[in-house]
Specification:
Rossmann fold, 6-stranded antiparallel sheet, 7-stranded parallel sheet, globular, 13 helices
Length: 365
Amino acid sequence: MKRVPVYLITGYLGSGKTTLLNNILREDNCKTALIVNDLGSVNIDASLLKNKDNLKKEDMKMVELSNGCICCTLQNEFMTQIEELSKNKNIERILVESSGISNPANIANGFLQYQEFIKTKCYLSDIITVVDSNYIYNKYYNDILEYDENSDPDIINLIMDQIEFCNVIIMNKCDLLDSDKQDMVYDLIRKLQSEAKIIKSVNSNVSMNEILSGKRLDFDKMMESSEIQKALTREEAQDEVNPDYGITSFVFENRRPLDRNKFEEYLDKDFPDTIIRAKGYIWFKEAPSNVGLLEYAGGEMTITKTGSWLGSFSKEEQEEVFKNYPEVLDDWDPVYQDRINQIVFIGRDLNKTEILKKLDMCLVD
């Protein structure tokens, strides 16, 4: 059975996704289907694409998904449309432009879960993230850029997630930066995502042969390709330094609980502005059941509850988990069970000793 590759194009609003899609379609000689996702009731990106001459090809198929995001609320509809398109014998590939605020890891995970239960004719191939290089430079390297108190703290963290989960990165809008600034942005992206192919571009002008491999996506490998995941999973955290721009990374790890007031005071008063990215799991003494996900990027910090620690479950529930997943016991602590603070820090000229000292002062028994 011939299987149809699906390519996901992601990136924040205004990064150049639709322009990239138009460039691919102008070059494309295959019978291609498009799925375009927009949060609004009117799919603006789809409207722009429809007005292009390259969409007048007889073999072109287009599906618009609006009023939601394919990484969450529209996930079932998204997979249904993917399946229907893949059954069309005239379709040789499917290109998906996700909404600007979609998380590619969630889309990929939903795709794979669907495939586990339903025999399908399609498979997920490349995940391509389009990055606004000028925005990244101004966010991290332009010291005269003023802090925007009205900015959404989730946006820059989402951009980081999009960079960290992909196998191709298009560093777009390079014409707005000189070569030195381009190198600085490239170095930062490479630090965040060590495995992905990075391609510099202007107006998303990239050959489709560079970005559409047709190979089946290795989900596990991609999950482990970001510096955040590597640091969280390696047994001993090792400092890594880039000699050109002084970018380092390290892990703070301690099982003792954080005091919420002390930790919030540290974030408000002492959190270094040299930190570029921080992500990991934390727990507070005041809420011992809650798994907290900490994410920081570009001056914006979020802490959200993502679940409950197994240590807060009943003995019967724990025994059931141990029975089905005995590997959990490999990292089980007699005092704190599975609870742990584990945060990866990436930044420029970081004072690791001072940061760890301040974090230790936020811990309590």
